[in-house]
Amino acid sequence: MKAIILAAGEGKRCRPLTLTRSKVMLTVANKPILEHVINALVANDIKDIILIVGYKKERIMDYFEDGINFGVKIEYIEQKAQIGTAHAILQARQKISADEEEFIVVNGDNIIGPDVISDLIRGAGGDATLLACKKNDVSDYGVIVAKGKNVSEIIEKPKTLVSHLINTGIYLFRQEIFEMIEKTPISPTGEYAITDTLQAMIDSKMSVTMAVTNAEWLDAAYSWDLLEANTIVLGNLEEDLEDAKIEDGVSIKGNVYIGKNTTIRAGSYIVGPVIIGDNCDIGPGVVILPSTSIGSNVSVASFSQIRNSILMNDVRISTHSNISSSVIGSNVATGPNFITEEGNDMLIQIEGELQHAEILGTIVGDDAEIGGNVLVRAGNMISSNCRISSGKTISEDIPADSIVI
């Protein structure tokens, strides 16, 4: 069975992190989201992958290449205009041969475990099968109305509660889906949506069924959602310290993974789950607390504390810093005493709308340089390629390429 992975979009709601990479390449537990998806397919012996790419496609293709290092065969197709999921699926038509009765479609920007795919396959039936899961808050999703396993309607972002079952965007299709997509009219938003195709199938008395999963399915809709996803994925972390250089006087508790050629210097204190990549230099006297992922080629200087955060590759944190509930992009450098204030039940403005964040320090985009004695107030973001002078308090969002003096 082949799998089509949709990975062409930007993920605007995850800016500033997606200014320099697509959402599928955002890291959780030191792996791009897309890698988690591929691993789930491989665990179900699905190794023939068609990857639909578009925005920042070179970064995806450079990382995954032909897929051999990930145990798969990858063929790339470019969706030159990101005009909907149905249009993206249609791009792969020539790669699905006539003798292949069924194929899987999955979004590349949702974190899934192997059981998600197996639940779909096990529960498949009818002309099309969609995978559903239960959510308490369904206001941002497509909600499924069904009679038994038979889907009767898909309602996008309902104003009132009609069901707790949401569409995960993971499907098992037959060849007929391509003809139905070609008949699907463009939506009022200017896109060709696969949910419109499915509704047309239902209206035509074709069989659209659902399979329900209780397995791991995480949608990081906003950049701060990466923190929750990171916490959940790290819950399955296995301890591995064999390749690390750990000096005397280091205290490590819980499940901690430390990569090759990484040095943990004396007096440092680490409480898992924590993952630290290759070629890092941590300490002395650094405290790293649970639910933290630190990428490769990262240095964290003495007497700093990091908690419930994601530091991507090539980050340099200077002494006496305190980073909490934050996501720090690649190639960010800070001066000493860099502090991220943490807030609860935050209202964050994204694309003109207020969104809720349960807990957040800050989000820092790639290639930012931040001076010493900088405090970032809770919920404010620093975009990519910014320069922040020492002694500043950041109490509003800083747009890309800004200089704060």
Describe this structure in words.
This protein is an alpha/beta fold. It folds into 2 domains: 220 residues, Spore Coat Polysaccharide Biosynthesis Protein SpsA, Chain A, CATH 3.90.550; 172 residues, UDP N-Acetylglucosamine Acyltransferase, domain 1 (3 Solenoid). It has 7 helices and 38 strands. The strands form 10 sheets. Strands 5-4-1-6-11-8-12 form a 7-stranded mixed sheet. Strand 31 and strand 32 form a beta hairpin. Helix 1 crosses helix 4. The termini are far apart.
List keywords for this structure.
single chain; 405 residues; alpha/beta; Spore Coat Polysaccharide Biosynthesis Protein SpsA, Chain A; UDP N-Acetylglucosamine Acyltransferase, domain 1; 2 domains; 6-stranded parallel β-sheet; 38 strands; globular
In terms of topology, how is this protein built?
Blueprint: E1 2-7, E2 27-28, E3 31-32, H1 33-43, E4 48-53, H2 57-64, E5 73-78, H3 85-90, E6 102-107, E7 110-112, H4 114-122, E8 128-134, E9 142-147, E10 150-156, E11 165-174, H5 176-182, H6 194-203, E12 208-212, E13 217-219, H7 225-234, E14 245-246, E15 251-253, E16 256-258, E17 263-264, E18 269-271, E19 274-276, E20 281-282, E21 287-288, E22 292-294, E23 299-300, E24 305-307, E25 310-311, E26 316-317, E27 322-324, E28 327-328, E29 333-334, E30 339-340, E31 343-350, E32 353-360, E33 363-364, E34 369-370, E35 375-376, E36 387-388, E37 393-394, E38 403-404
Parallel strand pairs: 1-4, 1-6, 4-5, 8-12, 14-17, 15-18, 16-19, 17-20, 18-21, 19-22, 20-23, 21-24, 22-25, 23-26, 24-27, 25-28, 28-33, 29-34, 30-35, 34-36, 35-37, 36-38
Antiparallel strand pairs: 2-3, 6-11, 7-13, 8-11, 9-10, 31-32
